[in-house]
Structure formats: structure tokens, C-alpha cells
Amino acid sequence: MRILLVGAGLSGAVIGRELAEAGHDCRIIDARPHIAGNCHTERDSDTGVMMHVYGPHIFHTDDEGVWDYVNRFARFMPFQNRVKTTAQGRVYSLPVNLLTINQFFGTTLRPEEARAFIESKADTTITDPQSFEEQALRFVGPELYEAFFKGYTEKQWGCSPTELPASILKRLPVRFNYDDNYFFHRFQGMPQDGYTAMVAAILDHPRITVELGTEYSAEMAAEADHVFWSGPLDGYFDYRLGRLGYRTLDFERFSHDGDYQGCAVMNYGDRDVPYTRITEHKHFSPWESHQGSVCYREYSRAAEPGDTPYYPIRLVEEKSLLEQYVDLAHATPGVTFVGRLGTYRYLDMDVTIREALDTAQIFLSDQNDGKAMAAFAVAPV
User: Fold this and answer.
1) Is 75 considered catalytic here?
2) What residues pair up with 6 in beta bridges, in sequence order?
3) What is the DSSP letter of 149?
């Protein structure tokens, strides 16, 4: 069959590779001048530092199948993300752990003591937290909430934490030991030569053609037997019902001779600091040595037409509009919507790859059974 895949990021590359290996001809287009989507990496010509052009991407997963898959196409080096945060004039370790607690409160608590201490700070009158703020107050109490979560969240999401669902905070653990590894998955690492080289290896198949700097058109779909769309779901329908809400990021790049901050990621929790964090990219490749350094200050704001969409907002208004677009998608034959933008969900890289592998297998199974592939392999709502 002739397959058209819109987007040369992880979703398009993995689905394309699986279908090409099954004997289908896959044409992959991308409006950008490069492959790998938002995990695109490239070397800085001045310093030699491998840059994460659209912000840092750290690979972490408990899915052994996905780990084996990415290691087919790249050599992964050990890497653990150890985030620091500057708050109220001091530097602390994240996620909030026993060192953070003892530093912040000037204590020397053991794990059991710290657990009881934080519980004494928590607002136990909140029995069913509904908002991010209620969850934080119930979880860690007002002092830690004000220092580490409130200001950062206001900057990241552009609204009060009282307007955000409690579920967002459930992804931010408090640890009553000194483990400062930001993630807790079994497999963690970074591709030695960057993500773009890994995606290039996935795309390296005689039945795959890649066309960059190429906008999608309906004529392309007419020439294909099936379309996989990894662009914005609302964009496929020309935003006819309105635009789904996203947060985007602005990057302020600067160089430094030496080591600027001593870590890959430094968050800034205070509301009066306009950026959310500074990333120093040579620290994402600790097996390399560079004198010069490239850093990015990150500023979060509401995405406008033409911006790169990063984080789907998915509050009440957006979910209502999403349901309408999902209905449109189900009524549109011959196209399957995939990935972060196509399903309007925040997805880590490992989940994106797993869903792409599963989507390809569903397509092949449906073809074998003489059925048409559905609009979604994973329901967005």
C-alpha cells in the first residue's frame, strides 16, 4: 500500500519503519527543515555541544520493549536527570526529597520523622482535593507549596493553581530519602549521537521516502491508501471549530566560557523571575568534554497561531472542543491521528514510541482482516 505519514517525529518515523518493514511504501513529509520533531538535536558549531533545540528530552521508561527498540537504532549512554531549583535565594534539590526538606526547614530529620513532619504541615481539612493548589496544600503544606510549586506553576501554565486539576501534581513525588534522580524508571539514558541521528536510523529503509520543508495538501492524501497524521488535530480540519489551547516556549539562548550552572536543569520557582528554568546543554552529554557552554532560558506563554505547540492545556473549555474534533475525526475515513499533537495529549517519548508501535500493528492486523483503520488507536478522551 501507499502510506502517507504527516510528520517526521517519533510517531511518523516509528510507524513508517514498521509499515515499511511489512512491505508498504511510506512517504513521510514534514513542514520543518529537519526530522525528529521536538526532540531534534544538533551540534553547536562554535562549542561542539549537542543541543536539544526544542528543550531537553531525557529518555526514561519501564517498557523493556521500547528500550530494546530505541537501542536498535542508537547507542544509549547512562544519564540521570538531577534537577536543582533556585527558590527564595537558595538552591535546593528536586524532586522534593529528604535533603530538600532538611535544607528548607533547617532540620536533620530521618525518613520517618520527615514523613510525620510534612504530614503535620499538610492541610488535613482538605479530604478530596480538586485543584492543583488544594492537592499541594494537602500533600506538602503551605511552605513547600509556596517555595517550589506555586510560582513555577503560575509561570508554566499562565493561570492560578486553583484553576488547574489536582491530577497535575500527582506526577510530582515527595521522597523521604536522599534520592534526587528526577525519574524512577528502570531504563534511563541519552542517545550518544543525539535524537536526530536515532530518528535518521529509524527512517533509513528503502521503502521510506522523506520530504522536508513540505506542507501537507489534500492532493497528497488522494494519492495515498491511508494517512497517519501527527500534526495538530485541529490543524487537520483547518481549525474550523476553533483552536485547541497550548502552552508554548520561548528560548533565550546565551553562551558561556566554562561551566555556567553546574547542572543540566536549574528551575526558578519564584514568581518574580520571569523564566521557568535555565538548561545547560553540555550537561546532557556528561561523557563529552567542552570548554564552551550553550544555555537556554525558557519562558512559557500561551501559544498563538504560528507558534510551536508544546503542552496541551486540556482544561474544561479545551476538552469540550477536543470532543467535537474527535467526532469530526471519527467521521473522516482514511486517516488516523497519532502522537502528542494528533491526540492532544502530553506524551513522554517512550509512550509515544509504544503507541506508534501498537498503532502500526493494529493497522497491519486490520489490513489482514480487511478492515479500515480507526481514527485513533488510543482515544484522546
Assistant:
1) no
2) 29, 229
3) I
